[in-house]
Amino acid sequence: MREERDSIFMLFHQIHNLAKYYGMQELKSVRLNPGQAGILCVLQKEEGISQKDLSKRLGITAPSVTAALKKLETAGYITKEGDGEDLRITRILLSEKGREQAKLLKNANKKIEDAICKGILPQDKELLQNMLIRIRGNLMETKELQGMSVESVMYHVQGDAGCRGCGPAEGRSHQK
């Protein structure tokens, strides 16, 4: 019989923390914090996203996104421009320097995934990925998480101060 520390739940918990720590060490090499890295990752795929949609996509508050964007803009990684049709909307774009930084970040992410999957055959990696997607889906189908998005759950778990009073019972206010 396996030890309790090797239960599936504990393994997920351990792997999460090990990967997070390793990832934070890698982020030091590209001189970004996790929030800034998340923003660059999203912009790499969805350049021109609105600040409001970026906040929703990352599952963090608008003030937190604003603070991170200010630092990225000061560092020269992003530019902001108004939306041509709706002046209330601010679009976020990568600068050339930001594109270079995003490439470094992509390489760091690949290094992290390579470390995680070292010694795992490609077909087993695909199987693992499919199983993890299914596990995520299983959890999202529980009554406690029904109607929430992965992003909103992450928002609550991170304990963001801008949660506007949402507790476990009220958590459904942060939907997709």
From TrEMBL:
Domain named HTH marR-type: residues: 8-137
Keyword terms, alphabetized: DNA-binding, Transcription, Transcription regulation
Pfam families given in the database record: MarR_2
InterPro entries reported for this sequence: ArsR-like_HTH, HTH_MarR-typ, WH-like_DNA-bd_sf, WH_DNA-bd_sf
CDD domains membership: HTH_ARSR (cd00090)
SMART domains named in the record: HTH_MARR
Domain of life of the source: Bacteria
Protein name as annotated: MarR family transcriptional regulator
Organism: Suipraeoptans intestinalis
